[in-house]
Amino acid sequence: MGWVYFRKMFGSNVKLSGLKDFSLVCYKQFLQTLKASDYTVLSLVEFIERERNIDKNERLIILRHDIDRNPKRALSIAEIEREFDFRSSYYINSRNGLNHSKTIKEIISLGHELGYHYSDLTDSKGNVEKAYISFKKNLTILRQFYDIKTISMDGKPLSPYHNLDLWKSYNYRDNAILTEFYQDLDYSLFAYYTDTGRRWNNDSINIRDKTNTKKNWPTYNSSFEIIKAIKNNSFPTRVVINIHPEHWTKNVLSWYLKLIWQMFKNIFKYFLRKL
Fold this sequence. Notes:
Layout (H helix, E strand, L loop, with lengths): L1 H9 L13 H13 L3 E3 L1 H7 L9 E8 L3 H13 L5 E4 L1 H6 L1 H9 L3 E6 L1 H4 L4 H15 L7 E4 L25 E2 H4 L6 E4 L28 H9 L6 E6 L8 H23 L1
Parallel strand pairs: 1-2, 2-3, 2-8, 3-4, 4-5, 5-6, 7-8
Helix pairs in contact: 2-4, 2-10, 4-6
């Protein structure tokens, strides 16, 4: 009974033998599976540029990453993706961009897209005017590294302010932004899978990293189930996958420390949702 509850709350992170989920070895296996499949893997900006020429029946995955912390792990992910000739979208805030400029430049040099992972309304404690000024300032900072065309809000689950609400008063397109990830993609056509909380789409701990679609897409409890679905052609035709690099590591000690920390964090988020 205890193990069943453990698996329900924290997912299939722990395998009693063999390959561990949320390891870089597992991520490489995921990419190998994609490479051997008939999926086209794109960054968001690549999808926007090619959308008119993409056949509606083409199997397609938009691969993205939120760099909330630990940009070095993002670089490890970016290097593995480059091995398979995949390009993806990396969303970062201006603080991490400035503090880790060398790492960010290396990610860009591998051919990946850089986008703004914004939390200006949260950071401005709900002051919309201040938040918009902050958004424009931070966008300018990040454009020192890359001509940013797409943005993605940071959920900030502990904040009472939802960063998407900034666009009830302003228009991001006034800043030469083509797409906001949560607002502009049609999620009745794209399934969305995120590893938030070191889980895959668990609503009990996922507070804001989700879409508003009412369509019931298949659910998966582990990366291994996703890999299996791709291999047996049961994975959805069009998919957005959000990978948080901080969750993925090759170091055994770091892997277990992250698992334990995420367990406590997920418990807190679980009860927060109950309030």
